[in-house]
Amino acid sequence: MEQEEKQNSSISKEQFQAMSSQLVGRMNLALRLGQQFSGDRNLYDALGYKRELSFQDYYTQYRRQDIAKAIIDRPVNKTWEGDLTLLESSDEEETQLERQWKELVKKLELKNKFARLDKLTGLGRYGILLLGLNDIQKKEDWQNPVQGSNKKLLYVKPISENHVSIEKFESRSSNERYGLPTIYNITVANPETKSESELRVHHSRVLHVTDDCLMNELEGTPRLEAVYNRLYDLEKLVGGSAEMFWRGARPGYSGKLDKDHQFTEQDDEKLKEQMDEFDHNLRRTMIQQGLEMKELAPQVADPQNHVDVQIQMISAEKGIPKRILVGSERGELASSEDKNQWFSFIQGRREEFAESQIIRPFIDRCQQYGILPEAAEEYEVQWQDSLQALKKR
User: Which of 201, 230, 248, 294 has the highest CB neighbour number within 10 Å of its CB?
Assistant: First the structure.
């Protein structure tokens, strides 16, 4: 037993090599981004794009940019819209599993917690759901595996990758969890003391969720990664057009001095004072002899076509119809093709991500720990039929 714990207490040589290879791969990719003409020109440097992105980059963009927030929120909100029920039997009489699931969803506000977990997972490479069971008496108990099948689930807490690190992996190749985490380090906030503490948590108390994985099942692809440059371009276009309008609305002036007029230092100071007052809206007129002031013609361009190109690129990559992503009044009148595409996107997301990565693994844990009864037969996850109503509009 001691030998097994020793084997399991650190990262194996193979795991270290795999993690190192992934890190080197990401670094090499970052160095190659934007390279043209054998490195003589780099588009990323010229356009101001970041080569390496972190969770904080995605999180900041989500909190501060409207389209970035829409990319994350619109699919998640529609996915978890309406009632979420289990159907174990076609009989009208409610089964024990159906009833207890309904009670658990209401008691723990599971639908809201799952939606938050969905968002946090998409902002980073993964998210976790911390299971608060009734066998925790002291802080050290978190690192112990869950034993027995008579537990009560007191709460669940969605946590982002930014507050989680993996301390230990399963290193025994004969174990079914080979290469998967055994111990997590999780930073949790205490709202009462406004402080943070770190927990060492056993994997049996964590639901690890990823989306859009490639070679590594522990890390998915952040949902803003592929469109991050387009989001940056939008900031330049929208912010630049606002600045252009602001400056164009208050145009500059040029002055032509009369050739016969003698311009003294006193006149110069007086003119500067009037110009400052005019620029700061302290005066609306200027009086100056011997100087002819002319308004510079403003150059204000319409950014609409350029913005549309960026939105179209984002829509194509994310699979969200443009009118639905933008959410304008035109979006309310989206075509039937847009609605059908949106319906298929959300339906696929429910089946391939929400059910397979969150709901069913959560139910499996609850049944394993005795929180929910075992199903007499295969259960079915039922979503509210709002999508059918959307499709028919």
Answer: 201
Question: Is residue 7 in some structural domain?
Answer: yes
The secondary element (H helix, E strand) that includes residue 85 is: strand 84-87
Can you tell me which residue has the tokens 């999508």?
387
Domain region containing 38: 1-52
**Total domains in the fold of the chain:** 2
pLDDT tens digits for 361-393? Answer: 999 999 999 999 998 878 999 997 655 555 554
* pTM flag (> 0.85): no
Asked whether residue 21 is assigned to any structural domain, the reply reads yes
What digits encode the pLDDT tens for the residues 157-172?
A: 999 999 999 999 999 9
Q: How many residues does the chain have?
A: 393
Whole-number pLDDT of residue 338? 81
Residue 52 one-letter amino acid: E
Distances (CA, A) of 227 to 28, 223, 316, 324: 20, 8, 10, 17
Q: Is 35 helix (H, G, I), strand (E, B) or coil?
A: strand
Q: Which residues of the chain have pLDDT under 70?
A: 1-41, 250-252, 282-291, 296-297, 328-335, 385-393
Q: CA-CA distance, 165 to 163, in Å (whole number)? A: 7
**Residue 302 included in any domain:** no
From residue 230, how far is each of 144, 171, 226, 309, 315 by CA, in Å? Answer: 45, 41, 9, 9, 11
Give me the residues paired with residue 256 across strands: 292
Q: 344 in a domain, yes or no?
A: no
